[in-house]
Design brief:
41% of the residues lie in helices and 22% in strands. With 247 residues, it is an alpha/beta fold. It folds into two domains: 114 residues, Rossmann fold; 118 residues, Rossmann fold, CATH 3.40.50.2300. Strand 6, helix 5 and strand 7 form a beta-alpha-beta unit. The two termini are 29 Å apart.
Length: 247
Amino acid sequence: MSGDLVSLRMVAVLAAAAEHELWRQGAGLSSIPVELSSHNFASGAALLGKGGVDICLIDNGLPAAELAAVIAAARALKPGPLVFVSGAAGSARPDGVDGMLRQPSNTTEARKLVEICVRAKLPTRVLIVDDSGTMRSIVRKILSGSRFALDLHEAAEGFKALEKLRTEKFGLVFLDYNMPGFNGLETLSEIRRESPKVAVVMMTSTLDNALADRAYAAGALAFLKKPFYPADIDRVLQRYFGLDGAA
């Protein structure tokens, strides 16, 4: 994916005939051109084998064997698409998917869900804030292991982070708590005041429930104890993008 992206190719494998037109209408209203083709199990699995897919959307209402087969076909593609499952509230999450979406009931909901898919596929600008260069490199490496596309940048302390946020556009900040000058909570408060649309993930090397509570109260999206892993990052990003919608 790049800044020169013109459109995304999305393949939907759906169980109910009524869902096909709903998703097509939603894709037609997307802010970025989305070429959506919807299929039943047989034609969808065959199309996935040809590749060139950015997003694979799968109906959780498919029989279990068909659902597993479509997920496997999508995961076999190189480069691999993001794989999302759409289902009713409370649906069990299958293994091997990148997120869950609530099944839409109208075109407006379908458009919003397509926008979530688009947002998740496009690169997200991320600022890593830590006074340790070694730790910034470690966090960068962990974030690079995510299945989501992240455009990574760094700042050595809170003041520098705020300067960057005033002049550049970021979606996410991974913010260390223990820093000289502004600590993480102070920096978080300033970010929420100056850039309320930017999501902040607080990081710390100490398990401190009281600190976590204060971070959430101040508006943090998530609180991570070091060390953490790509799977932890993916769970945070699913929350950030809104990909836990069937929960």
